[in-house]
Structure formats: C-alpha cells, structure tokens
Amino acid sequence: MEIRLENLSKHFAGVKAVDSVNLEVKTGEFISLVGPSGCGKTTTLRLIAGLETPTSGEIYFDGKPVSRVAPSRRNVAMVFQSYAIYPHMTVLDNIAFPLEARGVAKKERVKLAKEAAEFVRIEQFLDRKPGQLSGGQRQRVALARAIVRQPSVYLMDEPLSNLDAKLRVLMRAELKRMHQKLKVTTVYVTHDQVEAMAMSDRVAVMNEGILQQVGTPDDLYYCPQNQWVAGFIGSPPMNLIECTLSETAGLKCLGTGESTITLEEGLAAELKEKAPGSKLVLGVRPEHLSVHKERKEDSLEAEVYALEPLGEHVIVDLLLQDMMIKAKTAPGFTAEMGSKVYLTFPKESIYIYDQDTLLTRGCSSP
Ligand SMILES: Nc1ncnc2c1ncn2[C@@H]1O[C@H](COP(=O)(O)OP(=O)(O)OP(=O)(O)O)[C@@H](O)[C@H]1O
Ligand SMILES: [Mg+2]
User: Fold this and answer.
1) How far is 221 from 213, CA to CA, in rounded Å?
2) What is the CATH number of the domain that holds 338?
3) DSSP strand E in 96-149: where?
4) Tens-of-pLDDT digits for all 366 residues of the chain?
5) Domain span including residue 76
6) Residues 122 and 218 in one domain
7) Cα–Cα distance between 240 and 242 in angstroms, integer?
C-alpha cells in the first residue's frame, strides 16, 4: 500500500508536533523517520495509524483519504517502543491473538503463529510466558504478532530501543531481511540516524515538526540540503564552521587566522555573486579532515582537546577557537592534549551553506 501525507499538521496546545508534512511512501518501501527527541516522529506515526486526528492536512492510503477511517479498519500493524505483550498468555497465544480477534479458526491460528515465530526465530519459546523471556526475545514476540496479521503497512516506533547494542544490530539485520521477504510498506521511527541509514530505502529527517529532507541514505550523506541535516547525519556528523567571504573569493574561517582558504574554481565562481564579507558556513565531514602537526597551506589551525581511540579509527576532538570539531584519523594517531595541529581537506569534499541553503555545486554520490 502507498501512503501519502499531504500538508499534515498536528498541534497540541501551542506545540506544533507535526507541521505541514508532505511525504510519499511508495508501495513496499521501507522508510525511516529520524530526528531528535520531541521532533514529532511518534505523532506522525500515530496520525498514520489513526490514533491521532490531524489538526489539518490529509493522509491517503492508495490515493484514498483515510482521516475518517477508524484505526482498526486501516489494516496497519503498529509495533511500539514499549511492546505491549500479555504477561498471562504464552508466547504462542500472544502471537496468535490478533488472529483470534479476527475469528481465524484455531488450527489455522496456530499454524500462522508458528510460522511467524520461526521467522523471528523464537519458535523454541512458544510455551513460555513473556516473564520467562529476555527483552530481546519479548521484542521478537511483539514483531511476530505484528507479522502474523499480514497487514498492508507496518508502523514501527523505535522497536529496538530496549535492546542492548549487540542485539540491536542483530535485529536490525533481521528486520531488514523480513522486509525484503515480505515487502510490506513500512514506516520505521528511530532517533538513531545510523539505524535509519542502515535499514531504509529512504530516510525522512525531521526537526521540530518540520520535515527537513527526504532521500536515500546516500542522498542524505552526500547532499545534505541544509545545515541541520548536515549536522545530524554521519557519525560523527559534519563539522560546520563559520566563515566570511574574502575579497578574493576565498574563505576566512574560524582557525584560518589572517590567511584564507582558496576554493575550487567552480565554487569560487559560484560565490562571486556574493558580496565580500558575506557570512557563510563551511561544512567538512570528520572523515575528510587530515590532521597535521606542521603548518600547511589552506589549513585550519586547531588545538587537540581529546582523543577517542575506537580501534578502526581515532576520533580527534579539536578546538577551533572556542568551537569543538571532530576529525576521524587513522588508527595509531597520537597527539599531546593542547598541542597545535593544522587541518586540511580535499576541496571537492566540502559543502558551503549560506544561511540555511546549500550553495555547493551538484552533490556527488559514489
Ligand atoms: N498528547 C500530547 N499532548 C501534548 N503534547 C504532546 C502530546 N503528544 C506529543 N506531544 C508533544 O509533541 C511533540 C512531538 O512529540 P512526539 O512524541 O511525536 O516526539 P518524538 O519525535 O516521537 O520524540 P521521542 O524521540 O522522544 O519519542 C513534543 O513536543 C511532545 O511534547
Ligand atoms: Mg517517540
């Protein structure tokens, strides 16, 4: 089923929880809603499920408006953050419950519930009560119960949030496989951008009720359209550094001192239309910064604040005057705390934002 949100808004006493959101989820697509706490993810999901009524705007399922369709008749299965499974029922009965409510005969119920349990690999626990399961196993019961209904849409609200880091990553793969097999339209809510990128066909980034950008994981990484998305996607996300445009169409930034950073010709030409002195923001991803101990041309001077050795790479926390930025360096990198370093970056991998829009020429994906 295809879902379309048209100028969808939900206001609660003074809070614009969802603010004129337009979004299309194609049939069979897995789309994530991602954003910080309170940005309106759950409210959007509840609107789609019919658990909230829009303040304005409309939701369409396969082109038909559903505002007046009761939640029970929308054929969506919602998996909540705090999965409500019944403690007094066995795993099997919990999974089969939606079928019983729908009047499916017992034999068929058991068959379908067992299939769903096998799918999420909890078939060995069918006779247990939820109290005898780990958090991750319970989470799977909730998923199996959603699968067994064979809905037209899955709505999942941080379904992995109660799991430990290792299990989260495991279940991430399970959910992805489940989607590839069942191809049911899925809207998945998470505040974890890595999880969203890893699982989704497309990711919708929200902040303060407003949809900031929708795109494939590569679109978001290679072409963040505004500073907010740039500073949210990536781990760690992009560094955003204040600059002003110099007379020579170079950039005078935090850390450049009296010198300027020269830009690629194309980009400099693009910036020619701007008046010298214009405020701009230079975006550089931590993975594109090289840290040198000796002064370099076109570099930013920074001070080493801390090192985070992560095995595959070292994150270097740096102070650019009073602003903290991050660089990802090769394993084994060391430096004295407080020492001066010089940062360089390939000119083709930078982004330049003016107020809030991306000025850089066509973003390239691999
Ligand atoms: N029933 C309600 N009454 C009043 N305000 C509400 C209600 N539900 C949500 N809000 C407000 O709407 C905004 C969006 O909430 P929502 O639950 O959609 O955020 P979220 O993105 O899911 O956050 P989280 O990641 O913390 O779950 C918040 O400011 C919240 O306080
Ligand atoms: Mg929420």
Assistant:
1) 11
2) 2.40.50.140
3) none
4) 999 999 999 999 989 999 999 999 999 999 999 999 999 999 999 999 999 999 999 999 999 999 889 998 999 998 876 667 899 999 999 999 989 988 999 999 999 999 999 888 899 999 999 999 988 888 889 889 988 988 999 999 998 887 778 878 888 888 898 899 889 999 999 999 999 999 999 999 999 999 999 999 999 999 999 999 999 999 999 999 999 999 888 899 999 988 899 988 888 888 888 889 999 999 999 999 999 999 999 999 999 999 999 999 999 999 999 899 999 999 999 999 999 999 999 988 899 998 778 886 557 666
5) 3-223
6) yes
7) 7
Residues 199 and 282 placed together within one structural domain of the fold: no
CATH (domain of 25): 3.40.50.300
User: Is 231 within a domain?
Assistant: no
Tell me the CA–centroid distance for residue 247 and ligand 1, in Å: 47
- Whether residue 3 contacts residue 153, with contact meaning beta carbons closer than 8 Å, is answered with yes
User: How far, in Å, CA of 327 to CA of 308, rounded?
Assistant: 10
What atom of ligand 1 comes closest to residue 189's alpha carbon? 22
Q: Are residues 156 and 18 in the same domain?
A: yes
Question: Is the domain of 132 the same as that of 186?
Answer: yes
Q: Which residue has the tokens 């214009």?
A: 278
Give ligand 1 pocket residues (Cβ under 6 A).
12, 15, 17, 35, 37-43, 191
The answer to whether position 363 is within a domain reads: no
| Same domain (yes/no): 248, 313 | yes
Entry pTM: 0.91
In a domain, 365, yes or no: no
Ligand 1 center from residue 209 Cα (angstroms): 9
Strands (E), 285-321: 290-292, 300-309, 314-320
